[in-house]
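By convention, each integer encodes one residue's backbone shape. The lines below illustrate.
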Amino acid sequence: MKKPQPKTREPVLDFNECTEYIEKKHHIQTRDYANSSAQFGEWCDAKGYGKTDPEGNDRGSSQIWFAQFQADIVAGLVVDKPYQDFWHWLIDVVDIRNGGTIELSEELGEGAEPWQKRILGLYLSEFGKGPYVTEW
């Protein structure tokens, strides 16, 4: 019987480093692709609101302005940007474990939304199928 020897793994890419590279190169956010987190601030700017509301609360804490923002969404005056998170989509379609590796492929994009296909395509064109190590 042969004594087991250490095995070498094929080179792996760090998924987090690849994500950071893609986000900077392509000027996108993979965790909030539609930039929904900035929508309220953009709305306040468009309304000409300053940093604090009439009660002295800053924008992020303003119940007055947020209620008006919500009313504008309901009235159809603002199209609410969806929260689009590539990582959340990916964990639904790939078995991802902390410290594990994943491989990406065009087949993962079958049935995906256009924004998901675009980001997946960026990983594939920049880095190929992987493998990518996933650690958090």
In short: The mean pLDDT is 93.
